[in-house]
Design brief:
Blueprint (H helix, E strand, L loop, with lengths): L1 H22 L1 H5 L9 H26 L5 H26 L7 H22 L3
Helix pairs in contact: 1-3, 1-4, 1-5, 3-4, 4-5
């Protein structure tokens, strides 16, 4: 049951992130502190956040509904959230300060940490 909840929340989070980034890339980028001066930036937001999170969300959803093994969906969550929190922590080390981050980035530290930990727990305690 726990793995089902993790997969459902992960799929919903990924698909929502994707749809927002695809539909409104400039608005998506603004709270992240990103400026999109032209088509290149819009394309990158749509590709990195829209496309990547869409396919990841569909993979997690496929695991949720039994089209692929549940472990596969959990591995997608572990790799994605793990990569995000790893990058954020390395950036924090490089910046040497948490103070300069805005509320969205601070919230993403928590979301990515919890996503990573809950996904690992679900994967290792019987998907």
């Amino acid at each position: 049951m726990f793995a089902t909840i993790v997969l459902a929340i992960g799929a919903a989070f990924f698909v929502f992130t994707s749809l927002y980034a695809l539909a409104r890339p400039a608005q998506f980028a603004k709270p992240l502190g990103l400026a999109l001066p032209g088509a290149d930036g819009l394309n990158e937001i749509r590709a990195q956040y829209g496309g990547f999170f869409l396919i990841s969300g569909l993979a997690v959803a496929a695991a949720l509904i039994g089209q692929v093994p549940r472990e596969w969906g959990l591995v997608v969550l572990v790799v994605t959230f793990g990569g995000l929190i790893c990058g954020r922590l390395l950036a924090l080390i490089a910046e040497r300060s948490f103070v300069r981050y805005g509320t969205t980035i601070r919230a993403l530290f928590l979301i990515d940490s919890w996503g990573f930990l809950l996904s690992i727990f679900a994967l290792t305690h019987g998907a």
